[in-house]
Amino acid sequence: MTCGSPTVLAAHTPHIQAGRTTSPEGIRMTTTHDARPATPVSSIAVLIDEALDATGILPPHERLVELNDQLRAELERLLPIVQQHTDGLPRGGMQWYGRQCVLDDTREVLARDLGTGLRSAAIQVHRLARHCVWLAEYAEEVR
Hints:
- The protein is mainly α and 143 residues long.
- The protein contains five helices and two strands, in the order αββαααα.
- It has helices spanning 6-12, 41-52, 61-87, 94-111, 118-142; strands at residues 15-17, 20-22.
- It has a two-stranded antiparallel ribbon with strand order 1-2.
- 28% of the residues are buried.
């Protein structure tokens, strides 16, 4: 079973439930690391909602490109925050492993482009939005 497999991700990552995210760990942590200025929470929430809905009725390609750029910027902001905290967890523990899997999977999703078709672009934007939700939840716990 690999880090990015659905079984591992389902067992070790936050789950989206009724517009909220929950973390299986449920532990609050603090940090002072914030490499880039945060986008207003309400703007990110609207952006994520739109991106998650992008696989229904497909938005125009231009909008998917905009969502892609904005979500990537937010993920690039969140990655070092969550990675710094994860590096401080006991290596190999359940919490460390779950978060590291999400971080590795996020990097893998960021390495992909939108593809050549409208459907592939919508699916990629949806993936970016899911990872944005997960990392935002972890980053919120760190505060």
